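Severity: low
Component: inverse-folding endpoint
Summary: output formatting inconsistent between runs
Steps to reproduce: submit the following structure tokens with default settings.
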């Protein structure tokens, strides 16, 4: 029992030691409490859960202020996507990276305007622009993941299954399953992102608090699971 507890504690600490892992935990806390707050019948407790959710969201937004340089480093290393499986995936990857790089300064302007650190700037306008970048990035990433799943599926049927190739095939199947799960998570994120847009676009602004909490919590849990699942790839 002690050994199991120490192993679990070690895994949690490893998750929290990385920026990506910590962000996933904060995101899960943010939307789990939003879900509870949206469903709770006691208004006082519901407001406390929603307040906690807002604080977790603000914490993530503050931490993202430092993401420009890591994103730039990743984009420079990615280049024109020469390591991708085909030109379509490379084109989608490069376009997504450009959107993500521009997203961060746009979000910074919105953050500065929200906290009254700059004047003469419409915070709602910049929030909408950042949401547009977010929606576009998720959509393109989803298209890229679907394309990758299709490629992996074709390789599965084209390759011979000999004993010395079985390990490679098993790894390919693990990668395919991982990418399918990524597609599910991205679909949830896309539903969530579209809802942040102003009214008039698809289902924008139509989801209530608990629905947003449920969708984003499910996505966050999948994201944490994928951090561990990636070890087997």
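Observed output (run 2 of 3):
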């Amino acid at each position: 029992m002690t050994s199991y507890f120490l192993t679990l504690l070690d895994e949690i600490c490893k998750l929290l030691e990385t920026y990506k892992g910590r962000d996933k935990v904060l995101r899960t806390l943010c939307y789990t409490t939003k879900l509870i707050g949206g469903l709770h019948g006691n208004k006082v407790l519901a407001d406390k859960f929603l307040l906690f959710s807002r604080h977790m969201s603000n914490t993530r937004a503050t931490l993202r202020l430092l993401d420009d340089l890591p994103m730039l480093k990743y984009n420079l290393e990615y280049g024109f996507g020469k390591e991708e499986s085909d030109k379509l995936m490379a084109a989608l990857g490069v376009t997504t990276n450009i959107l993500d790089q521009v997203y961060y300064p746009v979000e910074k302007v919105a953050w500065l305007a929200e906290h009254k650190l700059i004047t003469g700037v419409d915070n709602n306008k910049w929030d909408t622009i950042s949401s547009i970048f977010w929606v576009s990035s998720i959509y393109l990433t989803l298209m890229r993941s679907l394309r990758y799943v299709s490629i992996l599926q074709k390789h599965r049927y084209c390759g011979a299954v000999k004993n010395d190739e079985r390990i490679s095939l098993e790894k390919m199947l693990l990668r395919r399953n991982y990418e399918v799960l990524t597609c599910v998570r991205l679909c949830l994120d896309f539903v969530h992102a579209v809802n942040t847009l102003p009214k008039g676009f698809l289902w924008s602004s139509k989801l209530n608090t608990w629905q947003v909490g449920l969708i984003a919590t499910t996505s966050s849990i999948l994201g944490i699971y994928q951090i561990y699942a990636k070890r087997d790839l």
